[in-house]
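stage 2 :: seqdesign
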């Protein structure tokens, strides 16, 4: 009996170490795994391949199409792949008269730099996009759309770059421990321990500190308008995006897309998605004129 109890104790200990130490570390390694997928062909002949340079000297690959209406939208991809995953969004926007700047975040495909699939350096990459657009003569107003990680990167940059006056965040939730606890139900150590440990391992492996919480950036973005999109089948998305709405008040709108999984709203409801996004950008950006250059 003592031997059986000893084996059971060891088994439980190994299981707990695996779940609460090894798994967060393995997930942290996944955060920095290279992404060598090249972007391939641009969505159409209207797009040129351009290079953006961040404040810390990292060169990023991007597609750029000039606007017909003076409004340009920055497109930011999710953690799984680069800007090629945003081709349909780029085509939709370009066909409706918007300019498009679709970039690869650092470490993805043809962009230099070390990858971080949590997007902790994303604000610098967004800064490079804003700087590029501010140097163009045909820009009157700037908006942005990001899916999953891309939405989180844009929300995290909202305070730093007020030139972005309209942000669509599709499937955004959290990037680190200090963002995970934005929900009251996640304050318990039982719920947040693994997330905090994962965050610590990512810091250890990358030498990069976790960014300021999304909630703080959103709340401080006094000039921006927000459209949050949450998947109806993903309770965590609904909870986080409801929390985002609580801090933006009249500056935001929330669409909970019924019966869809993570970032599945465009595929499931293409017409409604297009209408909501186009209406949002037109209402938020039209008439800003020279304010984009301020």
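stage 2 :: out
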């Amino acid at each position: 009996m003592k031997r059986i109890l000893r084996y059971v104790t060891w088994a439980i200990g190994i299981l707990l170490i695996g779940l609460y130490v090894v798994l967060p570390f393995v997930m942290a390694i996944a955060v920095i795994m290279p992404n060598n997928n090249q972007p391939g062909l641009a969505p159409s002949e209207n797009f040129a391949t351009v290079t953006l340079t961040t404040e810390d000297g990292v060169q990023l690959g991007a597609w750029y199409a000039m606007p017909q209406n003076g409004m340009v939208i920055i497109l930011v991809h999710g953690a799984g792949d680069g800007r090629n995953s945003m081709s349909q969004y780029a085509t939709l926007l370009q066909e409706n008269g918007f300019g498009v700047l679709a970039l690869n975040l650092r470490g993805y495909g043809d962009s230099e730099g070390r990858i971080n699939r949590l997007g902790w350096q994303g604000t610098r990459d967004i800064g490079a996009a804003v700087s590029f657009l501010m140097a163009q003569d045909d820009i009157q107003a700037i908006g942005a759309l990001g899916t999953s990680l891309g939405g989180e990167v844009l929300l995290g940059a909202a305070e730093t770059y007020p030139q972005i006056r309209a942000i669509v965040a599709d499937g955004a939730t959290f990037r680190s421990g200090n963002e995970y606890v934005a929900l009251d139900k996640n304050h318990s150590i039982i719920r947040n321990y693994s997330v905090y440990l994962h965050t610590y391992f990512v810091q250890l492996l990358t030498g990069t500190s976790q960014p300021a919480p999304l909630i703080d950036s959103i709340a401080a973005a006094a000039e921006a308008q927000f459209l949050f999109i949450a998947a109806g089948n993903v309770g965590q998305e609904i909870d986080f995006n409801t929390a985002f709405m609580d801090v933006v008040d009249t500056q935001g709108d929330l669409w909970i897309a019924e019966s869809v999984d993570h970032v599945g709203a465009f595929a499931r409801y293409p017409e409604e998605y297009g209408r909501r996004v186009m209406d949002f950008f037109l209402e938020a950006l039209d008439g800003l004129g020279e304010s984009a250059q301020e």
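stage 3 :: structure notes
- The two ends are 76 Å apart (CA to CA).
- The longest helix spans residues 2-31.
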